[in-house]
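Supplementary Methods S3. Input chains for the assembly prediction are listed below.
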Amino acid sequence: MNKEVTHCLLCERELQQVITWQTLFERSWPPVICERCEAKFERTHYTTEELTTIFYYNDAMKNFLRQYKFSQDIILAKVFRQELNKLLRNRSETIVPIPMNPLKKKERTFAHIDELLHAAEIPYEHLLEKTTTETQVGKSKLQRQQVAPLFSCTKELAAKHYILIDDIVTTGTTIAHAKKALLDAGAESVTAIVLIKG
Amino acid sequence: MQRRTKKAHYLGLLLHPSAIHSMIGRIMRREDLPYTSKLINLYIERGLLKTQPAISTIQGLLKTHFRCERCLNTQSEKFIHFHCAKCEQVCTYCRHCITMGRIASCTQLLTWAGPSPQHPKKHQFSWTSTLTELQQHASLELAASIQQKRQHLLHAVCGAGKTEILFQPIYNALQKGFRICVATPRTDVVLELAPRLQKVFPTTMIHVLYGGAPEQQSYAQLVIATTHQLYRFAKAFDVMIVDEADAFPYTFDESLQKAVYKAKKPDAPITFVTATPSSKLLKQRDGYSFLPRRYHNHPLPVPRFQSLWRYKRQFKKDKLPKQLRQWVEQRIEAKQPFLIFFPTIEMLEQALPLFSPNILGVHAEDPTRKEKILKLRNAEIQGLLTTTILERGITIANLQVAVVGAENPIFTASALIQIAGRVGRDEQYPTGDIIFFHHGISLEMDLAKQEIQRLNEVANE
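Predicted structure tokens for the full assembly:
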């Protein structure tokens, strides 16, 4: 996955590299999508102590997720590497991606959160295990909150700080379950960074 | 076939004939078949389905080359390598045809290897209009080429009545029980062709395939498809007709050309149909028919050039250039439908708010473009702003056409000839205005005008 990208990964137009002062001085990757496609993603400025999100779930994001997760176009993990890298590099906290059910992962051929972090060159550690195969899709908020614990922790944790990573948050149930599992295993504090706010 | 299925029945192997029909000539991913793994394996064992790996590797001198066995793409930047959680090693997938469902090294492709079906030889041919002498001549030449399994180039100017020329040769082939494909690079052309062919062959099962088309069950002897859809076929057709054979992206994307050859049977003849053949097409032809005259015998409208200096800057300042505004006002006053071509989507979107709300814009990413074209045809709107997607296959009576920024490299001579060919197609309105607004005349504009004038002269001889 280390090939030069010459055409926009989303619309196939030829990419023009623009050199600005920012690209000269800041360590950054060459873009993989064109400005037109990039402009279609809508940024959030939603940050609380517990949760940071980067983008809203709009039509462009819906198409992106469909192509990335369901068409299994893994190279799209690179699209948001700059944003994720900026938020996560040089963190002292341990970074914990939300895991996939092993069967589901096999079916999809890749774990989408891991690939996002991988593309952003962020080291991470898997500390959680998914206990069920059901997804949160298509459930009401009440139904989501009433399910049995979704995750279990794989080991006893040191009393340190942890950051959970997920692709999309709607009601926050997944994050809440994961957080509880980590805290129960001995974590001191848990925050979350999620790419998309539903 | 009867005997085999009987035997298969005893083994609990029987699939419904329509299920088998939907597999014939197709190249499919294993996971797309709605049958159990056990059943598919039995079919493979019996030699009824053939398997092949989806991505083949060719060891070159310095590096390994890849080829996608569905779309035959070999561009190395379209192959992505990743660690696959399914087969737990490094896998390669093809991005070129990913919209049809991703295929990777560990994907199995299946083709039907069992008996092929008998096609009906009786077809209703309900076409009553007559051909002009020139059309009739070309039609006979084409039918002869197909009969002799010879490649043929049908070179006919825009509005010569190319589609009508195809009817008789298609009918002949249907009667012989051949499976026929009419392929074209443009979805718009597919959508225009399909109802016309269905009308001429009312009892023939026709499949119409393009990106986003509704799913069609069972088996069709006549298939009308975009060239992209041919990725899904292998050795399926006895006769292949490629309409608008010089259109983007067919000439530009080599894998589409390979797809045409892959989809037909090895000895099946190909017919290329176009108004603006490339020199390559002219060279590789075997049979050749040339129609320099339109069916209504009027000359092709010759484009006129009009300077529109610094139009980009004017659009940026939210100003409609004066000459363009006057041209549009004249069209509206005369109640003539019109098309205005723009070189880019960005410029089209910049210009659109400067026109009255009764004028819409279409481009390739527009999901409602079918409806918008219909509105123009039904005179619900006065005009359409468009990119080059409407350069071909659109026929509207009394249409007037302008090109803004005709010097832009996207408007090649053949694109400009096609655009000019939208004008004066109807017998009642055989003339019309075709105007190239420019910021400096390009070589391609000159070439287009010269070629149109040359064709008019040839037609007069």
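Chain B has three domains: 2-112, 133-291, 304-460. The two ends of chain B are 57 Å apart (CA to CA).
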